[in-house]
Amino acid sequence: MTIAEERIERLATLARDAAAECHDDRAREYVRLARRLAERNRVALPKRLKRFTCDSCDSYLRPGKNARVRTQDGHVVLTCDCGAQKRYPYE
Predict the structure, then answer these.
(1) Cα 41 to Cα 77: distance, rounded to the nearest angstrom
(2) What gap in Å lies between CA 27 and CA 75, rounded to an integer?
(3) Nearest to residue 66, comparing CAs of 16, 21, 24?
(4) Angle formed by the axes of helices 24-41 and 3-20, to 10°?
(5) For 3-55, how does the pLDDT look when each residue is reduced to its tens digit (9 = 90+)?
(6) What CA–CA distance (Å, rounded) separates 50 from 46?
(7) 34 in Cβ contact with 15 (< 8 Å)
């Protein structure tokens, strides 16, 4: 594991913890830093961070708090407060 990947993991943990404590601006900044670090080092974001962040506003999504989760025909739809949607398949 490279230094960049370790730092991205740490930022993902910090973002999750900040969002849990209702520090949304701090969580958003951690997500932005992690994305920028991943882009610069050409490293993929961890699946957990990729799934629970909004591509439009960079907020860390917490179902029931700032995100709505619905299931439809074979996929899960995550809707952020900003209106952006993500769809993931399930079986």
Answers:
(1) 30
(2) 27
(3) 24
(4) 160
(5) 999 999 999 999 999 999 999 999 999 999 999 999 999 999 999 999 999 99
(6) 6
(7) yes
- Token pair listed for 1: 């594991």
Encode pLDDT of 46-81 as tens digits. 999 999 999 999 999 999 999 999 999 999 999 999
> Residue 46: which of 56, 60, 57 has the closest Cα?
60
SS3 65: coil
Are the CB atoms for 59 and 36 separated by under 8 Å?
no
Q: How many CB atoms lie within 10 A of CB 45?
A: 20
Task: Give backbone dihedrals phi and psi of 88, rounded to 5 degrees, phi first.
Answer: -130, 135
pTM for this prediction? 0.89
Q: Provide the token pair at 10.
A: 């740490």
